[in-house]
Amino acid sequence: MKYFELFGATGFHSTFATTFCVDFTAYEGVALARLREAGSTNNVLVADERMLAQSLSDEAALPQQAGRRYSLVGARADGVYHPKLVLQLGKSEARLVVASANMTASGMGGNLEVMGQLRASEAEPAFTPLLRLALAYLTPQLQQNAAASRQLDWALARTPWLERAKPAERGGKGDAHHHR
Prior knowledge:
Blueprint lengths: L2 H4 L7 E6 L4 H14 L4 E7 H8 L14 E5 L9 E5 L3 E7 L5 H6 L4 E7 L6 H16 L2 H12 L3 H4 L16
Parallel strand pairs: 1-2, 2-3
Antiparallel strand pairs: 1-4, 4-5, 5-6
């Protein structure tokens, strides 16, 4: 699966994505365009702050839509900030994608990348605890940016089932181990 296909999925109002490095032309022209077409209008991109500063120093490739169509957050890390997570929240479902791809042209379409996804909903809550862990991981980074923090609050207010959902009993409907 490539980000292009992934970001075309409907049912999600919010997308929180992390990356090590970012190519704004590729992110805005491919990922953001697909997300918005699919109904995800509340978007935040979190990138390693040093790599983000490097991307922002290229005057020929500056972001055109940051601050208007998505928020951009620089993440601090002792080493490098290297996770590639995509957490998408919707009115009735959510998903977590863990990938090796950066938000660059080669990461979105040229490189051979690995992606895996987990889905959860109120009806199928087995992976809800893992989605909540991803949310807990992202929350401190998002709260350091006023706009991203407001976007997180907005998303959570429109995803109340995520807090209410109880994980299925082991071996029950929706348990990954049950479907062999």
